[in-house]
Amino acid sequence: MSGAPETVELVRAGGPHVAGLMGRVEERLRADAAGHGPALAEHAGETIAAGGKRLRPLLVLLAAGELADEDAAETAVRSAAAVELVHSATLVHDDVLDSASLRRGRPTVVARAGRGMATAAGDLLFSRAFAALTGAPAGDRAEAVRILSDACSALARGELLQRADAWDASITRERYLLRCELKTARLFEAACALGALAADESELELGDFGRRIGLAFQLLDDVLDVSGPASRTGKHRGTDLLDGTVTLPFIAARERDERLAALDPRTIDAPEVAEEVCDRVEATGALDEVRALALELVDEARAALPAGLDARRREALELVAGGVVARYA
To answer: Which domain holds residue 19?
Structure first.
């Protein structure tokens, strides 16, 4: 299997069966993006082909472990594909809302084909996610649909909160963390819960692991938006600030710096201004505070792993936790 070095390491840690299952996930993703008219198939297919780390579908497979029969394995593959389809759909729709021109170094669907086509392509990806779950040959399909549906509802709520909070410097830490929970952590939680469900196990503890890892992932991503550099992130430092998204590094820095506390986020209107604000945020030590909170969440996630989990799954999931931290070190 090709991919980022950390992804390859996780696949190996999960056991020899994981590479084959990830290959099947890729095949299903390509199939689910095609076959619905040439225009939609082109744009949905290019979104899938753009790749990414595939962390969310990999979490499904690692949470499921080595499954006893082919029906359970196929159910895990379908669940993994469903989670990635939802993630891809949200990226397409986010690009529509943000009028973004690039995603993963490629022109976005909205930049290539306009808002209407991008909205339709995202809708297709969402619909195919649920079709993947309902075709599963084993497990509780209704429960799987409920888990993913709840995550999608959370994503929508989180997006609405983020839009409502745009350029609002009075956003509290609690409000920020709620947004992170809804927009990021709940899909990580669903990935782990679906893996446990495919293995015919309780999804609660592994779901809690995924939720905490998702929160840490988002906090550290917001740190990286401030610390950069652009050569690593593929975007300007302070892109969140330019978009009007108030994140915890900015909130924490405002508590430490009177000039930042008095700053109207709407005045951050150019990349060079965002760079200056990022420098001030970094100088306050706020990034260290946010990193420390993320590390606490990772430790809590490790502690949330079920006591009876087999050694291979535990090792692989702990590597996920460590990888989240290492990515931003």
So the answer is: 1-138
CATH of the domain at 96: 1.10.600.10
Domain end among 84, 111, 138: 138
What is the model's pLDDT at position 39? 83
Question: What integer pLDDT is reported at residue 2 of this predicted model?
Answer: 42
What pTM, to 2 d.p., does this model score? 0.93
How much is the pLDDT for 1? Answer: 41
| 53: exposed, middle or buried (Cβ count in 10 Å: 0-12, 13-18, 19+) | middle
Question: Is the same domain home to 148 and 45?
Answer: no
Low-confidence ranges of the chain (pLDDT < 70): 1-6, 229-235, 327-329
What confidence score (pLDDT) does residue 44 get?
86
Whether residue 166 sits in one domain with residue 128 = no
